[in-house]
């Protein structure tokens, strides 16, 4: 995975109050729409910087308490510091990967079921998330963080990933990440829905979006097609369980169904009334995920 371990530098200055930074909150409204019509090139550059800047939220309970019981280790990813959290004695390791705007605390519901199944558990705060440094992130950044965690704590028996984290794991698997089993919850499999959501949130005219994509691909050094899970799925061989809620408003159920259909041998578990994040705390889902990762 060494060839994929470099991440592009942040291209925005540090915020004075990073935990309150949110492009959606600060830039929503008509300003971008007007600017996009008058100066599409400049608008595309500014919008790209803001679109890849996640907001930070403080870790919620009980996740904060579970993180307090972990062994904490800083890892270095191209000038940024990311934090890893681990539980349990040496054994088959399972990596927990959060999604966009999330953090390791979100994934801690899996710690105890996986430990009871005999696993060592590792969670990470991606760059620009949780305690980790940085202001900008992407699937490319996430993949570099996963590679760093694999070097420090791997090899991993399994991976449990949520939302955009699942997209990053798919990209990481295509770049050489070793894992025997994977569970994805509410995965993103197509970036067109992500782009459209961002466009509406920022009130951008449609004609600006191709410019933003080109700016982003130059910055990242990789095309979105190369990172898109739906395109990568047919080449995958890792046994996969996809858990996706039919009413998920952040990552459409169709994304999970499409990914499972294209991934050889993947299983799809639809849920109801769990939305995008409730499955991360549901006891039955936690047990089923742990059983699948363990091979049962």
UniProtKB/TrEMBL annotation:
Q: Name one GO cellular component term.
A: membrane
Q: Which Pfam families match?
A: Abhydrolase_1
Where the record annotates domain AB hydrolase-1, the positions are 94-232
* Record-annotated membrane-spanning stretches: 23-47
Q: Keywords, A to Z?
A: Hydrolase, Membrane, Transmembrane, Transmembrane helix
A GO molecular function term, named singly, is:
hydrolase activity
Q: Which Gene3D superfamilies match?
A: alpha/beta hydrolase
Protein's name in the database: Alpha/beta hydrolase
